[in-house]
Amino acid sequence: MDAKQFIDACNYLSNYIATYRNQICQHDFPVMPDFEKIQPGYLRPLLTSEAPEDGDSFHEVMRDVRYKVMPGMTHWQHPKFLAYYPTSSSYPSLLGDFLSLAISPIGLSWFACPASTELEVITLDWLAHAMGLPSKFMFSSTGNANGIRGGGTIESSASLALATLVMGLRERALTQLLNRFDITDEDRIDGRGPGALVDRLVGYSADQAHSSVERAYRIAMLRIRTIPSKIVGKRREFDAYELRKAMAEDVAKGLIPLVVSSSNPVGSRELRGFWCAYFVNTCVATMGTTSTCEFDDVKSIGQVCQEFNAWFHLDAAYAGNGLICPEFRDLARGVELADSVCVNPDKLLLVNFDCTILWTSDQCVLTEAFKADPTYLLHDFNGMPDYRDWSISLSRRFRALKLWFVIRMYGMKKLREYIRHHVNLAAEFEMQLLRDDRFEVVNDVRFGLVCFRLKAGRQETGRLNKLLLQERSLFLSAGSARDLINPDEEQYFLRFVSSPHTTIRDVQFACETLSSLADKLLGDVGCAEQ
Question: Is this entry keyworded Lyase (predicted)?
């Protein structure tokens, strides 16, 4: 493909993309594939059995996209895609990503690509300031009294960001512990080395935390203790009292901390007393849980973490985007107590996947763990981060460009309007749904997610979900959480959360569809208000 062919293909593709986006906004096709025709393995017999020896033309490839690939697509940008937390997309983001792919730098260090590093630094400081985050998370901060500086990095997902952070904390703990107790090579052979220490490291999260928390600790070979949430009205809250109790129990057991803040050397014979006096661990709280969009009491959890010198991570992947709106900042009251924060602009800031931001108050937690300096990576420039030292991956995409495009071309005012619209749609859905008294809402709707079920019970709610999948006019997902009445049991429900193109009319259609299917399922039209 030469330059002229490329320009022609880009013209065709840009028209195709614009037409596709217009068609989904106009509901020209269903949100989901036709699962009577699309079954697992549907695509293989439609394509050649082996890769082509001679290249096909662009239009031949696009013909297969249109007639073979697209029929199997679930359309995540569809106005009636109401199942999962949204994946954002916008024309400015597409343009930024397109340009990034064309330039195609590998921003592993400032020297490797100065502009990609500096734009990431500047854009993440912009966003941290717009969200009202403490200055300790910004590169522009001079650091604390001990010279510790924070900053942010863009990762591909919140799961990878958390796994990276946990491994960084583990490495710091092992390094400090081995140095502190002067463990020799002979000690390590006898089983008193890193392997034995890792087995005693522990972290904490609530039972409503995202599954990525458990995976991150499992990958890092660390223990995790899950704290049962407490039921307060329709809320399932991370219980600070139970957290404090669990930490105290583990101190008494002599479990080993992940981060040791004491600078005093302690001999191995003083091991048990040391843990009691300087026990430090990690704790993960959530701003907008996946199951029910619950908001943990960040301030109370943070105070417990300070009491035990715990590293406090705030998972704000979804609802953290709302911090750009001042009225939602009370949901994260106490964020200044957090040591790290994770937010996904690709959920609510109109930036297409992938774009996850991990802010940390101490960048050395990452750089000390992942720093490697082979000769071919060395350079003489200072004053800017080398992002290869901030992550498991050496190579990294120029993701900051699409985020910068979105902020520049929309401005914070338009982004705030978009988030407020998203939240208002949830409130409208809740109001309209509850006009039918066969339904009940089982979460405290404070942001963009509504969890609901049929009062008739779990079995009927499950049947309703199957009817929705068969009809293909809406895509909702099922969820479960601790039952509000019987906390020892799981409550099954359906989840509503709007996508970027959802409108009030789509909300009305969703409520009408649910009532109509309830009529079919229950054979009772008398409960619904007319």
Answer: yes
